[in-house]
Amino acid sequence: MKTRLSGLELLALGFMTFALFLGAGNIVFPPQVGVGAGTDFWPAALGFLTTAVGLPLLGILAVARVGGGLETLTAPLPRLAALAFGLGIYLAIGPLFALPRTGTVAFEMGMRPFVALSGSAEPPLYSLLHSLLFFGLATLLALMPGRLMDIIGKWITPLLILLLGLIALATLVAPQGPLGETQAGWRAAPFTEGFRNGYLTMDTLASLVFGILIVTAIRDRGIREPRLIARYTLGAGIIAATCLAAVYLPLTYMGATSHELAAQAGSGELIPAYVAALFGPWGPVLLAAVITLACLTTAVGLLSACGEYFHGLWPRLPYRLLVIAMGAFATLVANQGLESLIRVSIPVLVTLYPPAIVLILLSLIRPWLGDAPRVFAWALSLTLAASLLDGLVATELEGLADTARTLQRHLPLGETSFGWLLPALAGSLVGLAGGRHQRLREA
After folding, report:
1. Who's near 345: CB < 8 A, 6+ residues apart?
2. Those residues with Cβ within 8 angstroms of residue 357's Cβ, 6 or more apart along the chain or in another chain
3. pLDDT tens column, 5-46
4. Do 16 and 157 contact (CB within 8 A), yes or no?
5. Can you give the pTM of this predicted structure?
6. d(CA 272, CA 147)
7. C-alpha to C-alpha distance for 45 and 43, rounded to whole angstroms
8. 161-188 per-position pLDDT tens digit
9. Of 73, 131, 77, which is closest to residue 341 (Cα–Cα)?
C-alpha cells in the first residue's frame, strides 16, 4: 500500500482539481463583476473570491473530513431530505444548468467569432454541430473516469494555465482603459454584490460533488489512510484555489477597465472584444483554445460525478448509459442560449447556495455537535426557508416576487442577501439545545 504522493503527483492532483472547477461560469462572471464594480473593484472582487474560491475550498475540506461524497455529508439529515437536497444539487450542476452551460459558453465565446467571419451557415446550425462535437468528446472522456488525473491534471491543465497566464498578464500590463464608474446597483454594497455573483459559478455546489472525485483519485494512487487522504485533498484544494484566484482577479480587472472598449457588451461578448483588442487577429484563436479547454474539463468532471451519483441511486442503470444520456440532454439544452440559461438558473442557485454553505460549515464541526441529526435538521430547514424567499425574489415574477420581497424585509439582513444567516444560527442553537436537553433527560 502506497503511503505518500510525490510532489509531482500532488501538483497534478491540484491541477486536475483546478481544471474541474474552471469552467463556463468561472470565465464569464468575473468580468461582469468588474463591470458593475468599476472603481469599487477590490471590495467586489473580495466578495466574489469569498464565494467562488473560499467556500469551494471549505467544501473540498468538508468532503475530505467526512471521508465521502454528498451522501456522506447529508447523512445526518432524514433520508428523504438528504435525497431531495442531493438531487437538487446534482441536477443544478449537472444536466439542467452547469453542464449545458459549458457547451454554450464554449460556442458563444470561443467559436462564434469564427462563425461571424465565415458567414456560410446559420448560427443555429453551427451551434448544434458544435454541441454535438463538444459533448461527444466530453462524454467519451467521462467514460474513462479512472484516467481523469492523467488526462486532465498532467496534460490539459498545464496548457490551459499557460494560455490563461498570457491573457492575465496582458490584461494587467495593457488594460484597455481606466477603472470605470461603479454602477448604481453596486454602490451601496459592492462586497455583497460580488458575494452574490460568486453563486453563479456554482463552485460551492460543485465542491460537494468534485470532492469525491479528488478523494477517489488519491485512493487510486494507493493511499488508504484517512489522515493522508484528508491532507492531500486539502493540498489539492489549496493549489486549485490559488490558481482560481489568479484567474479571477485579472478577469475582474478586465471587466472593470472595459467601459471604453465594450460599454454595452453582454455576458458572452466582453471577453472576446477585450482579448481581440489585446492580441489582434490572434486573440480569437487564443480565446477559443482557453474557453474550449476550460469548459471541456469541467464538462468531463460533471458528467463523471453525476454519472456516479445517479448510478448509485439507481444501480440498474449502467454508469455508461447515464453519462451518454446526460451528454445527449446537455446537447439539446445548450442550444437555448447563454442569457436564457443564466436567467433561469439564478433563482435556483440563490435558493440552493445558503443551505449548501451551512451544510459545509456544519460538516466541518460535526464531531463536536453532539446530536448532529437534530442540529442539521433545524439549521438547514430554517436556512432553506429564508433562502427560498431570496429565490422567489430572484424570479422577478410579478406578484410572487413582490410578496416574497415583503416577507424578506422582515428578516434581519434580508435586503442584503444574508437574510439566511440568523435563521441558520438560530436553527443550530435550537438543535444544540434540543440535543443537550435530550441527553440530560436520558442521564
Report:
1. 92, 96, 97, 101, 200
2. 55, 204
3. 888 888 888 888 888 788 767 888 899 999 999 999 999 999
4. yes
5. 0.86
6. 32
7. 5
8. 888 889 889 999 999 989 989 998 898 8
9. 131
